[in-house]
Amino acid sequence: MPAVSSAAGLLALLDEPSDDLKQHALSHLNKVVHDYWFQISGSIGSVEALYEDDDFAHRELAALVASKVFYHLGELDDALTYALGAGSLFDVEDQSEYVTTLVARCLDQYFEKRVRQSEGRGEESETVIDSRLTAIVERMLDKCLSAGQYDQAIGVALEGRRLDKLEEVILRAPAGEERTRVLKYALRVCQQLIVSREFRQQVLRLVIRLYESVPSPDWLDICQCLMFLDDAPEVARILNKLLQGGEEEELLAYQIGFDLVENELQSFLGEVAARLEQQQQIAAPEAVDAAPEAAAMDTDAPAGAAAAAGGGGGPLAARVAKLRDILSGKTPIALYLDFLYRHNHADLQVLKNIKGAVDARVSVCHSATIAANALMHAGSTVDTFLRTNLEWLARATNWAKFSATASLGVIHRGHLAQGRALMAPYLPRGDAAAAAAAAAGGGGGGTSYSEGGALYALGLIYANHGQDIRQFLLESLRGTSNEVTQHGACLGLGLAALGTDDEEALEDIKNVLYSDSAVAGEAAGISLGLLCCGSGGERVAAEALAYAHDTQHEKIIRGVALGLALMQYGREEAAEALIEQMTRDADPIIRYGGMYVIGMAYRGTDNNGAVQKLLSFAVSDVSDDVRRAAVLCLGFVLMNVPHQCPRIVALLAESFNPHVRYGAAMAVGLACGGTGLKEALALLEPMMSDPTDYVRQGALIAIALVLIQQPESRVAPFRKRLDKFITEKHEEVMCKMGAIIAAGILDGGGRNTTIGLRSRSGYFRRTSVVGLAVFTQYWYWYPLLYFLSLAFQPSVLIALNSDLKMPKAAFTCNCKPSIFAYPPPLTAELKETKSKVPTAVLSTTAKAAERQRKKAAEKEKAAAGADKMETDEAGAAGGAKKPEAEPSSYTLENPARVPPGQARFVVLPTSGRWLPVKRESPVGILVMRDTQPGEPQELVTAQGDGAAAAAATAPAAAATAPAAAAPAAGDMDDEPPPPAPFTYQP
């Protein structure tokens, strides 16, 4: 057939009475429609009429032609409607742009209607799905499966909320490694991309069921899914089954325990441990009778040993005891404590420089320096700086003393064995242990500020693991009417009982709240949120919100508002009613809390609706506090997609409103913590020069959060900027404070911790996110700065054997040692040289010295001309040796520091004596299998306990320090000498 130059003739045939001619015209129009659609569009009515004629035998062909015309006209919905009418003539396997575009449109419409249908939203007409639409989607699924594109098929099934198709896709994957890979992919997509919490749980239950049908199920992933579903009995059953198996299963149970602990859901883990004990007692009832006798043989035995004794001393009882120590946090916390003490590289010279640069009379900078020291030594038990600067430390008074005492809780965080003994000199005098310490000369109690700070410190030490300290904190709260002590006791109790919904503690906290004390009530409101974290607490939330409307104290309203936000942690759609109520409230403080409710409820979900609400309030609310909170909480919602946060808040970072700019800086810091993202730094660095002091403060803290644990080559320029901010005499106090706190964050945990928002399994660590949320309240209340330490996660690789001891093992790191090495320590001499004032020199003396230098220079120039060549040659021959090339890989010894960026270079061993049970990620705590069980093992000796004795002396010494002191003699060392004697000549 010759080439067609116009479609006019074919269009004329459409008006012929013969169906054969019409079919002939449509067939040829279908071939040329992409070239002559503009001509056909004028007669589109004729084509549509043929499709609507039920007696016409080629209606589907007419629908296909009409669809293509509408496609070119940009009417995609009409094009899709006619494409559906084309039936099988619309070939979804065609790779043309037309088919690709309409298939995408088809999928979008199908997904939208399926979501509306599953969530019960919209009118019935909006949720009815055309069967032809469903047919095209299913054809696409079949196409993906036929091509082996299982990942794409899973995406279609999940987006379309089709659990039946998801199961079909997984079961059609080849059995073995491919099916396991597909299951892992489905699990990862479910965690990161599914917005609906209810549907996510349905998918997880399906994945668990399919996982268990695999010949070698991945019990690690199964238990993680069950933890997300809050199914403690099933997790306990699986762990008990593994413990009854061989050595490989035993080690796998320990590894599952360590992975579950990383998620920091201690109430769930406590239930699992309790059910493990019940199952053991059911399995061996005769062992229960032997427990008292075995326990009486050694009253000093640790909890794990006692549990083993309770099981009759058999292998299963010993295994259960070790697993219970893991789930309780006792074992992992002790390992982290030992690592942080062993590898502490915090540079005391940095603190000395800060201390020397700031005026101790400025309480803000003094307290910031104490906080920076606490963050630098978080969890390391090293309090050398405090012990060597007791007179300087004693200048803290009132609430500054409260903060200084609480800082010990950050330093000794995780020191569960001796935490209470360490704080005994400061604790309320009613405590028997503190009274005994006082009688022994260790100081006894103190002011209400030090007592309150000590109770707060206990909460920080035992955060999320407060079973041993709970009763003491309750008694301390009941035994005082002092609002400062109540403030510290409320914060400490909330931290120690985080997320437990402890009814007894709730009643005591509510009694403090209803006392209408502004200071104590603020802490009580926050504590309510900590106790009910993530549970919703409908009854408690309703009572607290009603009281917030009744009270006149802004502090109490703000505390309650934040507490309500913490209660809604991770509840997503379930929090919508409270979000609607709080965000529409007339009180700006309640609306401020509503922003945090959105951030906490949708943390790390990237939920479009939550982002839209926050952006709307960020630009429309009349309160600066609400606008600041709205922008800041974007950081919580976008935690799972940190690379998107800088782009979303970029325009807000240039707002005319400084509160909005501050919120944008903090949002980026929260979402991108520990990532080192270049986009985040590009947005934050210009904000260090912002004209508003608190915006600069926020930018400095945010940059420190982003750069923590990054290679020193990237951090060094920022350290110099911080030094300049701190030492600049005319810099504003707010900015100086931000720089000091940023310096503490950069070196957090002895330069061994990062901002750990997620566990290795991909779930968010509740304690970390909650800690960051409360930390941002330092804007109103500086002592809340210490909540930041809850987000610190050791960057560590620890290998353990079956006895949960550290064997001497090595790992290969395929990068240069200098890339992730600790930064070099500062030298005191360099700093002193910069700070000394030059000796005074008279002008006449300087002129005489200058004349002498000119004469000497002329003589040297004349003498150097003759033998210049010999000097050059000699210098070349005697030059320094060429430095040795740095190796491209090196060995890490157990336990090793592994920053997040270094993990991809670390290679787990595939041969040798010690092989990991889990081979996915070379970070955290790994249980290793011994391939030479008969050979003696060489173990790494623990060093963490060595800090206890020295650390215990610091509180007692500080407690007896004078309330005020003159400047130490060492402060005068930098005084310049007097000028040399001279004779005055007019």
TrEMBL record:
Annotated 26S proteasome regulatory subunit RPN2 C-terminal domain residues: 797-940
Keywords: Proteasome, Repeat
Lineage: Eukaryota, Viridiplantae, Chlorophyta, core chlorophytes, Chlorophyceae
Biased composition (Basic and acidic residues): 848-871
Feature: compositional bias, Pro residues: 977-986
SUPFAM superfamilies found in the cross-reference section: ARM repeat
Domain of life of the organism encoding this protein: Eukaryota
A GO molecular function held by the record: enzyme regulator activity
Keyword Oxidoreductase: no
Subunit organization: Component of the 19S regulatory particle (RP/PA700) base subcomplex of the 26S proteasome. The 26S proteasome is composed of a core protease (CP), known as the 20S proteasome, capped at one or both ends by the 19S regulatory particle (RP/PA700).
Low complexity bias locations: 941-970
Name of the encoding gene: rpn2
Protein's name in the database: 26S proteasome non-ATPase regulatory subunit 1 homolog
PANTHER family in UniProt: 26S PROTEASOME NON-ATPASE REGULATORY SUBUNIT, 26S PROTEASOME NON-ATPASE REGULATORY SUBUNIT 1
One of the record's GO cellular component terms: nucleus
InterPro entries: 26S_Psome_Rpn2, ARM-like, ARM-type_fold, Proteasome/cyclosome_rpt, PSMD1_RPN2_N, RPN2_C
Role according to the record: Acts as a regulatory subunit of the 26S proteasome which is involved in the ATP-dependent degradation of ubiquitinated proteins.
Disordered, as annotated region: 848-897, 936-986
26S proteasome non-ATPase regulatory subunit 1/RPN2 N-terminal domain segment(s): 6-344
